[in-house]
């Protein structure tokens, strides 16, 4: 299936109710399961990842398939390792290509019993759940924050708690801090000093919880506004003092011509003049937004040099390769100056005819390229239903703003 997206004018006006944060939803679901908290989570994300987590946590079987849900795979690996029983955890073909050895090694070092059913270092996994003692693990600082979060979520339930020692540069620190902040909302204290995180053995409190709106989801509307001729949108569901690292997008998008103003329940964004001739930014704390900014900067003809993208190659797809390839179809010559970097110096080539943007089973590819409709309405997007992973009603909201979305 393909979608062709167009709009009769480049004016944006309306109200967008943002999806609930997938990152927060899945963390809270694990916490509730660990504390046997049956209080319903309000505004729980209805995306595929969160549905997969909810289904598995409520399942009566011992064999689980997470599909493409990366956070679900990582969080459940840690969770199931301490739930007494014998469990099998697998996923899609792409999931079987995404490494998990760092997390498995860390868990096995504190008493878990996890083995590989196919290729060493990759799902599917056989997990023999038992009571874990905990104590200490050592990880590289550039390890995926999802591995670290998976360990942190179970840390207070371990007999000796858990001390995580991180070596080298710590990437995605904001996601680690988000996890610790959410844990604190449930009564768990922690220490994050220098290169070490310590969580003592303690009990999660059972509390009602409301999940805030997703800042990653908000980023796509910022991109639409940056490319519009004029407009004003209200983004419902955002918090001013958010735990989400992606909330750091506001000052960056201001350079690209989007003004933001908070209200009690959300934020107004409107078009303004861009004040940037070249965008240099370290995405260490919000790597999931690199696709959004790369596409937006190219379409605004603003050269860029992005760093802090070390984790992008082990996401739903190799996002560095995907961006270079798909933006190349549009005539933009992107490069990878070094590991974890992406750049465009303004070089152009002839664009292809009848362009179809491949999404690589990656929801963020479809979402990041959607704003292209305001600049090149003849471009189509392949497999647009991948947005269900994080933003199920995205295309319907586009229609409500006056876009024509056709198969």
What does this structure look like?
The protein has two domains: 2-20 and 212-406, Enolpyruvate transferase domain (UDP-n-acetylglucosamine1-carboxyvinyl-transferase, Chain), CATH 3.65.10.10; 22-199, Enolpyruvate transferase domain (UDP-n-acetylglucosamine1-carboxyvinyl-transferase, Chain, Alpha-beta prism). It has twelve helices and 21 strands. The strands form six sheets. A four-stranded mixed beta sheet has the order 19-20-1-21, covered by helices on one side. Strands 2-13-15-14 form a four-stranded mixed beta sheet. A four-stranded mixed beta sheet has the order 4-5-7-6, covered by helices on one side. By secondary structure, the chain is an alpha/beta fold. Strand 14 and strand 15 (266-271) form a beta hairpin. The chain has helices at 22-34, 48-57, 70-81, 101-109, 145-154, 173-185, 215-227, 249-255, 290-299, 319-329, 363-369, 394-400; strands at 2-6, 11-17, 41-42, 63-65, 85-90, 113-116, 125-129, 135-140, 162-167, 191-193, 196-199, 209-210, 230-236, 258-262, 266-271, 279-282, 304-307, 342-344, 356-357, 380-382, 404-406. Catalyzes the transfer of the enolpyruvyl moiety of phosphoenolpyruvate (PEP) to the 5-hydroxyl of shikimate-3-phosphate (S3P) to produce enolpyruvyl shikimate-3-phosphate and inorganic phosphate. This is 3-phosphoshikimate 1-carboxyvinyltransferase. One of its GO terms (cellular component) is cytoplasm. It comes from Labilibaculum manganireducens. It catalyses: 3-phosphoshikimate + phosphoenolpyruvate = 5-O-(1-carboxyvinyl)-3-phosphoshikimate + phosphate.
């Amino acid at each position: 299936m393909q979608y062709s997206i167009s709009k009769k004018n480049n004016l944006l006006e309306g109200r967008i109710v943002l999806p609930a944060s997938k990152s927060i939803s899945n963390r809270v679901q694990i916490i509730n399961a660990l504390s046997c908290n049956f209080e319903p989570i309000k505004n729980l994300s209805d995306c595929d990842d969160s549905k997969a987590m909810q289904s598995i946590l409520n399942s009566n079987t011992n064999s689980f398939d997470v599909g493409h849900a990366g956070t679900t795979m990582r969080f459940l690996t840690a969770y199931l390792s301490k739930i007494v029983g014998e469990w099998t955890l697998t996923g899609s073909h792409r999931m079987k290509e995404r490494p998990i050895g760092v997390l498995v090694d860390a868990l096995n070092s504190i008493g878990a019993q996890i083995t590989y059913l196919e290729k060493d270092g990759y799902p599917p996994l056989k997990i023999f759940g038992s009571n874990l003692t905990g104590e200490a693990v050592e990880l590289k600082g550039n390890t995926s924050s999802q591995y670290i979060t998976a360990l942190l979520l179970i840390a207070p339930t371990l007999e000796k708690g858990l001390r995580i020692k991180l070596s080298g540069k710590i990437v995605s620190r904001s996601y680690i801090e988000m996890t610790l902040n959410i844990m604190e909302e449930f009564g768990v204290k922690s220490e994050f000093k220098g290169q070490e995180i310590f969580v003592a053995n303690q009990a999660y409190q059972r509390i009602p919880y409301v999940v805030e709106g997703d800042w990653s989801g908000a980023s796509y509307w910022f991109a639409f506004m940056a490319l519009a001729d004029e407009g004003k949108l209200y983004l419902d569901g955002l918090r001013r003092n958010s735990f989400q690292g992606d909330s750091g997008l506001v000052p960056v998008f201001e350079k690209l011509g989007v003004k933001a103003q908070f209200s009690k329940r959300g934020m107004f964004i409107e078009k303004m003049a861009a004040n940037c001739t070249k965008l240099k930014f370290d995405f260490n704390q919000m790597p999931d937004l690199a696709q959004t900014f790369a596409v937006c900067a190219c379409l605004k003809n603003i050269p860029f040099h992005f760093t802090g993208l070390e984790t992008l190659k082990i996401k739903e797809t190799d996002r560095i390769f995907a961006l270079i390839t798909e933006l190349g179809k549009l005539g933009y010559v992107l490069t990878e100056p070094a590991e974890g970097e992406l750049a465009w110096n303004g070089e152009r080539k002839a664009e292809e005819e009848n362009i179809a943007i491949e999404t690589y089973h990656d929801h963020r590819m479809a979402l990041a390229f959607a704003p292209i409709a305001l600049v090149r309405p003849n471009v189509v997007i392949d497999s647009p239903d991948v947005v269900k992973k994080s933003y199920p009603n995205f295309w319907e909201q586009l229609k409500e703003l006056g876009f024509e979305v056709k198969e």
